Structure formats: structure tokens, C-alpha cells
Amino acid sequence: MKPWLSIIMTLVILVQASLAHADASINEEEWMQYKTRFLDRGGRIIDNGNHGISHSEGQGYGLLLAYLADNRSDFELIWHFTRTELLLRDDGLAAWKWDPEARPHVTDINSATDGDMLIAYALALAGASWNNKEYVAAATRIAKAILQEAVVKHAGRTILLPGANGFSARDREDGPIINPSYWIFEAFPVMNALAPSDAWELLTTDGLYFMKSLQFGPAKLPAEWVSLRTAPRPAPGFERIFGYNSVRIPLYLARSGVAEASMLGRLRQSLASDDQPMATVDLTTGKRLQPLTDKGYMIILSLLDCLTDGTKVPETLQQFQPNLYFPATLQLLALSFLREEHAACL
Amino acid sequence: MSMTHRKAALAAVPLAIGLLAAVPDLSAAQDTHAGSAPLLSLERQGRLRAIDDAVANDARSATGSRVAQVRTVQDTPTTQPQPVAAPSGEPDLSALRYFASRGDTARLQAEIARLRALYPNWTPPADPLAVPQNVDRQLEQLWQFYSEGRYAEVRAAITDRQTREPGWTPPADLLNRLALGEARTRLINASDQKQYATVIELGASNPNLLNCSDVDVLWRIAESFVRTERRQRGVDAYRYILQHCDNPQERLATAQKALDLLPLADVKPLLALERTLPDGQPEFASLRDGLARRAVAEANKAKRTDVDPADVDRLEALATSGNDVADMLLLGWYLRGKGDLDRAEPWFRKAIDREPSASAAQGLALILVARGRPGEAEAVIFPWRADSDDAQATYLASATNFLALTPAPVIAPEILTRMASEILNAKYVAGAQQLGWYAQAFKQPQVAARWFETALRWDPQDEPSAYGLLIARDSLNDRPGVAEIQRNWVDKSPRIAAYFEGVATATVPREPRTARAPAPVERVEREEATRQPMPPRPASPTVRTASEPRRPARQSACQATAINAAPATAQQQLMQGWCLMDLQRPLEAAEAFEAALKSPTVAIREDAAYGQSLAYLRLGLTDSAAVAATKSPLRPARAAELQVAILANRALAAFSAQRYRETLIYLDQRAALKAETTDLMILRANAYRALGDTASALQIFRVLAEVGNGDAMKGVEEIRSMDDHNG
């Protein structure tokens, strides 16, 4: 139960900070830069590394960052788009993909569980901090729907399906499939507050088990898509890689505070070493593919260093000069976390 | 209360929300509903103050956590927020001012109507366009965003101002409109993604969306109901439009949509709401063609033939003037279903000419089979046999009927081969059995036995195949084989039992083809109309009095039924059949017997089969008589009686068709059952003579001439004079 307690403690600290209306953990300048590049006036977060499409994940991150920047009107702007353009599904989850070039814009009505979770999480935090009951009500509906549609038991473990359709044991021969980077550990206690269920705590404990045990190939890294049909293995039909998405695993673990230092240390060593810079990895061969040199990725390594041995985060990684939506988002999440909880690292 | 007012202002007659309120999942969906909140957030802001303090205290007590806070806000009593109370005092003129400043008269008038409904004592300005502009520049900006549909920015700007000016509240009217606009956007998006529950939920919680000013929304609501098994509610929504909305294009499109989504029975009452256009035309005139197509298509699907003749005529005109093969096929199937083969056939042929298809080939093949031309049917359907289960069934039926023709037709080897291979592939019992009879007819009992054995392997209970196998083995003089059939079937098949009784009395009946029945074409059809073409009924049956009524007691019933064609029990139909036979009306009698054949009672069925066979014999329809005789197992005596008559008829028919060998075969078969009559002996002699076997002919003529038969004496005379000439 130790990880659970530490979450509570983390949240206490976080909430006290925000309730005291201390400085937002993302400053005005940073938020201005972020929104100038990635937020349009209709409330849409633009994934400029992905042909300018939008998705529930982006909307969720946008909401979370606007909350952390304490910008209520931008939060409202992003929420408007999320609600009217994505929250259309009969089951109360969000459609995951929105393409400005397509008519109708939603090109895949399936859900993405990390997007749904981020939206509900941000709404809950904002609703609690700003006393907006509508946000909390909306968050509650999404949390209930996630519980209903995407949280399942498999082989004695509680898992998070990546979407409402297409990943379960019934949907695929190699199902169920999970995506470890969809485990947003910090959100589970908040989900439990919204839609109380034992499943949320089980997601944390079973999630930690997976994060520890999923070490594939020579690189000993988790695969982006993992089949749990038999013993966990990289899912057939997906690339067998440690990909961009997976970079979030150590970040989420660190932010939630649920992982022991030894676990973070091991991940850190698998991610990069002196002669092996951080990169996406072919899990079969262990071969490095795309180097991950953007500050948004690099800061995750530094963050792990600081948490494990106290090494300070280099000045340059603290400067925010956003270029691509995804690493820019990760950098702000890392910075916000360090400022709130590990100011000594900066 | 104010809801009612708003409704009255925005929509004269909104689609009754009661229609939606009964949807079970709606009440649940409305709890603390964010979508409906903008109307209400003014009040909520006030209420939340208290929570604010509570939470703040909680948090300061050091045990407060983000989680606890979330729970607190969530758990605050969530009484359904009340609509803004009916306003008293001064109306908010900001919207009015904004629309006036833009010169937007339509919206201005709507706003005036709305305000009048809300404030009965309020007097609108004499010159609305001269209303002074809003002095609040920021509010002006909000209205501008709103009027440009930039709802996200309105939301952001409201929040921004509320953050900067804590006491400021946005105009309730703006929030209402904004909520409505957002709900509409979501509704359209959800509808585009077929998220029908979301669509209905939004419609139910936003009654102001449901009125004639936005028919598209009503269409989407209607479709969502229809597609979620709530058809009647969909019908209600379409009816609402046709009863209350006036735009002619929208009305026509509504009728079209209803036609696309609903069964005809639901659409018809809607179309009755049709109005007359200013030019005197009915407004849905252009839908009539589609309607006729639908009427016929639905009837075909449901195997009904009760389409309004006007619709059939319309479709016929379309098929005649147009090139649409689908129309021709619809019509062909419908007419065939009605039993009107003469009208149906040309449409299938025309369809094949224009664009060959499995459906057209199937229709034509079934008609050809019904007309006793299964060989042509086989050729027509062959290329399509693999197209569908139905096509295959039609092919097998055509081939089997082809084989079952009497006399057995000479079939080209390649055709025979392909029929056999299709029958084998499909393991089609009736087909294998007919191949057996076919081989037997051509005196190839070895081959016949193989086919009958095959049929029995596929269906060990198939009595006709067992019977066929018996005949074939008997021809082969296969005693053990015959004994095996006897062992297995004597208890199950009266005619096989009768066969062995016959053997015992040393009269070996040879009736290789008696068991033949055309394959049941109709049974194998699944999709299309299944009515068996009926022989035409006399237009007005005149009841003649039989000179010597054998069953006078039945006659009155017979007359009555003949006129009224009232449904009757099988027993009554049977009596009716005999009665009509007495009246010398065999055609109608055959129909009555056909009805009686559906009886579950074996005795009635036997009687009916016997009766129908006699009726056909009287009509000279020998093939039909043979078929009828197989419709029920018959007592041996009756079976023999029919068989004798059938074979005599066939012999005569073959002779008149100059098929003399066949004539002799039939005569042999008949002779095996019953002693040859004098006239048939003369027929036999003439057949021998025609085949050049004058010796055999002369032998018969002489025997008969000795007992003074004139025809025989003449025959002897003729042969002699011919010999003299030659000699």
C-alpha cells in the first residue's frame, strides 16, 4: 500500500500549492508560446508533427496544461472544442481522431483511453480548483464510462484497454492488447474520487507489475503495444518498438510518485547510456532507430537522473522553445512537475 | 415557467418533448448535465460560493487533498438546477441592441417576440433599428462572436471577463443561445457519427432545437429514433414536420427521407399530409415513381401480391419507357408471383438482353420450368448457378425437371455431364434420383442403380430412390440386391410391398417411371415469390346440373364453394373435388384436390392425389396426372388403375407423335399391369408396322381378325397387298 499512500501525499502537496494560488507551475510566457503554436482559436490542439490533426490525447494535454498554467479562459476554449467536436460517443467517451481536412472531421469514432483519462483528469482538477461543478460533472461521466468500457479483468490482472473497440480478447486473436504508455498513474486516484471502484487501485498495482516486467529484447524496454493473450509479448501486427509514445512511461511514473527509485533507475539505464543516446528502439534487435534529441524527451532523462541521484536538470533543458506538439507537451509536464515537487532539481 | 416562455418565443410549436421524455435513458443522462448548464450557470455560480469556502477550509486543515476536493465539489447536493426564474422588471436589451446595430432584422424580430413573451408589459421600441447601441463594448464583442458562430471564443471571453471582474454575469439570453448553438453543433456531429443515443439525448434536453426553423435537426432526431428501434417516434417526428412546417423543399425532402428509412405502411399515412402547391400540383408528385417501386419491392419481399394496380401500372410504364433493369426485374418477379407468367416472362427476357443478371436468369428459368420447358431453363440459369444459394437451387431444380420430362428427352452428353456434376457437388437427392430414372428409361439399369444408390447414401430415408433402386436391380436380375431392398423397405413403403406381392403372383410389373415427380422447384426458392402458377379459372363458373349426379348430397356444397371460392377444410375440398368431377369440371376439381392434398390426414391426401390424377387424365394432361399420382402413397389397386390409364394415354400420344418405339415401351409397361385391350393391340400392331416389323404386326392383326375385328382385318389386308406389290 506504500505507493498508494505516496500518491495521496503527492496530491496533498500539489493541492496545497494550487489552492494557495501560488504561481502557476507553467508560467505565462511558456503557455503563450505553447498556445501560439498548438492551440487554434476554436479550442483545437494541433498535432503539428502529425499532419495537423487533433485527437483526444491532445485535447486532454491542452486542458491539463491550461489548468497548470492557471488559464481559465483557455481551458474553457479547449473544453468547448473537446465537448462539441469529440465527446459524441453514445457511451460517453471521446472520439479519438479529428482531421481538419476531412468531412465530417471525426475520422475515427473509436476512443483512445489515454485521451479520455487526460480529459477527465484535467476537468476534475480544474473543477476542484476553480469550483466549477460542470467540469467535475463532466469528468465524472467520463470516468464512469472509462470504468465501464476500458477497464477489464484479464488473467487475474486489472488492465486498461487502449480503446473501447478493437483491443479486447474478444476483438482480436492476440487480444487483449495494452499500451503501457496509456497508464497515467497520477490520474487513477482522481478517477477513484470521481467514480469510486477498487479497479483504480488495482490498475495502479497491476500497472506497476507490468512496468517492471515488460522488458523486451536486448534493450530490455517495454513495447508500445503488448499482447497479453499468453505471456506478455510485443503484439503481432504492430511495430515491435519502443516508440515515441513509450517515452511517457517514465514521466508518468515519476509524476505519480508511485514508482520506487530503483525502478526509475533501471528504466533510466535502459533508455540511454553514455555511448547510447536516447532513441526509439527496434525491440527484436535492440537497434536504435530515431534519436530522441528534442528537449522534451531529454528532460525526462534529466528528471530521472535528479530523482535517482540528485543531478540537477541542465539550464538549457529548462528553456522552453517549442517546435513540435508532442515533445513540447512533455517538456511542460516535466517542468511543471519539477517546479511543484522537486524545485531542488532546477 | 420561463422555459415555456422561451419555447413560445423561439418556436411557435416545438416538436412535443413528451415524445422524447418517455425515452428511458434520458432522465439518467440529464443529471448535472453540462450541456444544459449554460442556461443555469448564473445561479450555480452563486451556489458554489458556499462550497468554495467549505473546500478552502478543508484544504487548509492539511488533510485536504486534490482528491478530497474533487469529491467535495462532486458530492454537493445536485438538485436539478432550476431555470432562471421568470424575470420581473426590465428586460435585457443587449441582444436587441446588437441585432439592431447590425441591421439584422430577422433576428431582431425574433428577439422582440421573445422579449414580449417574457415581459408581457414591455413595449418594443417604435423603430427597433434606431435602438441605441450597447454601451458595453466587451458585451458587444461577445454578441459579435456569437453572431459569427464563434462559440468557443464566446466561452473563452466570458470566462476571461468573469475571472477579471468577479461580480460580472453574462446576459442569460446570451448563455441560452450559446448553449443551444453548442447543443446543435454536438447533435449534428454525433448524428454524422451515427451516435444516435447522443443525438436523442441532446434533442431531449434542448427542446428549443426542435422546431421548423431547423428541420435538419428534426430529420436527424427522426433518423436516430428509426435507427434505434423506436420507429414510431421517428414517424412522429416526420409527422410533426409535415403537419407544422411550410418550406416546400423541406417538406418534399422530409417525405423522401421517410420513404428511405421507413416501411411503406408507416410512410403512407405521412404522405397523406401532402399539400397542394400553388400551381395545383400535389407536392409529393415526384415521389410517386419511387413509391410504386417500393410498393412492389416490399410486396415481392413479403411474397404478397396485393399491390395497388395503379402502382403496378406505374412501374410497368417506367419499365417500358426507361432502361432501368431493376424496374424490369421488380415487375417480372411481381407478375410471376401473381401467376401471370405470360406478362412476367418478357420482362425477364428484356432484363437479360439489357444486362444479364442472376436474378433475371432465375426468374426466367423458374417460368420456363413452370411451363414445362426445363431444358431451356437449365441453359438460362447455368452461367449463374454459383452466384447465390438461390441461383444454385434454381439450377438444380431446372436440371432435375429436365431429366424428369416424359418421355425422357435425348440430352446432349455435355449438358448431361454438367447437370450430373452439379447434382453431385450439391449432393442433391432429387437430382440423383432423377438421373437414376433417366438412365433406367434408356435401359441402362447399371447406371441407374448407381444413381439411386448415391441418392440413398445422401438420404437413407428417400423412399422413391429405394423404389428406383428396386426397379433397376430387378432389371439387372440382381436377386440379392432386390432382397436387400425388400428387407429394408417392405414395412416402410406400400408400393415396394405391393411390388413383392406382384412378384408372388408372377405378374412382374414394370413401371420404371411411375415414381417420377418433377423436382419441387418452388420449395427450393427462398427469396422470390413462390406462388405456383394456377391453371386459369373459368371467368364465371356456370353451374350445370349433372345428368346423373352420383353424389347428389354434395352438390349444393359444391356449387356454393365453386362460386365463392371460400376457404374450406381439407375434407370439404376433397368433396368439392369429387363434386366438380361429377359436374365434368376437371380443371376446377384438380384445384380442389390440390387444396385437399395439404391435409395432414393420410387418407384424405391419398384420396386427393387419386382424384387429381383422374382429373388430369380427363383433361388429357398425362404428365400432370403422373405427377399427381405421386403426391401421396396410393393403395396398390388405385396406383395400378392410374398407372394403366397414364400409360395408355402416353402410348397414344407417342404414336400420334410418330414415336413408335416409345409407343411400344409404354404398351409393354401397361401390359405388365393389365391385359391389353383390343384397341391397344391394334395400336401395337400399327406401331410394329410403322417400324418395319410387319411380321409382328401381321401376327396381331391375324389373331384379332379371327374374332372379327374390322381394323385388324383391314390391317391384314393392307400388309398382304403391300407384300404382293413388293413381291
Automatic annotation (TrEMBL), chain B:
Keyword tRNA processing: no
SUPFAM superfamilies: TPR-like
Cleavable signal peptide: 1-28
Domain of life: Bacteria
Region spans: Disordered: 62-90, 511-554
InterPro entries listed in its UniProt record: TPR-like_helical_dom_sf, TPR_rpt
Pfam families: TPR_8
Feature: compositional bias, Low complexity: 69-87, 511-521
Keywords: Signal
Matches recorded under Gene3D superfamilies: Tetratricopeptide repeat domain
Name of the featured protein: Cellulose synthase
Organism whose genome encodes this protein: Rhizobium straminoryzae
